From TrEMBL:
InterPro entries: DUF305_CopM-like, Ferritin-like. Residues 37-175 form the DUF305 domain. It comes from Candidatus Nanopelagicus limnae. Keywords: Signal. Residues 1-23 form the signal peptide. This is DUF305 domain-containing protein.
Length: 180
């Protein structure tokens, strides 16, 4: 079931991410992108980058097949979403970063990330799951910025992120219970 959802979300992401050939027609879908959507993109890109980095660490350190599968899924899906968000910023001629520091819900500290990288075995797996659950919960909170968007693409992305990450949180909690 999770695999089918991932494939569907990936397919939706591929459809929503423009190639050079359809960028001008895609511009119509960018109508009504306002400051909330721009700020969301500027914050969610580094948020996704951190999840991708955590997943890459798990792919190197974990031996748990379910965690490896989950990490590949997170890396793929969030990479696609990150490209879509970057396109919004490029298409609207917006900065890729914010001019000021915003606290993003669920972002891990440098200390937490360094600690994770030092762990091995089941201790790594447990900590990875705990931190990724926290990270995903933060991303879901950040969706408040675009939940009332007038832009259809932003609304669709918010719905896709919430659905995928909520399902992943449920899966991670089940995995975590199995590891205890």
């Amino acid at each position: 079931m999770l695999k089918k959802i991932s494939v569907l979300l990936l397919a939706v992401g591929v459809i929503l991410i423009p190639s050079g050939a359809n960028a001008s027609t895609h511009a119509k879908s960018l109508q009504n992108l306002g400051m909330n959507e721009i700020m969301f993109a500027q914050m969610m890109i580094p948020h996704h980058e951190q999840a991708i980095s955590m997943s890459e660490t798990a792919l190197k350190k974990s031996r748990n097949q379910a965690i490896l599968k989950l990490s590949n899924q997170i890396k793929s899906l969030q990479g696609t979403e990150k490209s879509q968000l970057a396109y919004w910023l490029k298409a609207t001629d917006s900065s890729m970063t914010m001019d000021h520091d915003m606290q993003m819900s669920g972002m891990l500290t440098t200390k937490e990330l360094a600690s994770l990288k030092r762990l091995t075995g089941t201790q790594f797996d447990r900590t990875f799951l705990q931190l990724m659950i926290k990270h995903h919960q933060g991303a879901i909170e950040m969706l408040d910025l675009i939940s009332d968007s007038r832009n259809a693409e932003a609304k669709a992305l918010a719905k896709a992120i919430k659905s995928a990450q909520s399902k992943e949180i449920t899966s991670m909690k089940l995995l975590l219970n199995k590891l205890k």
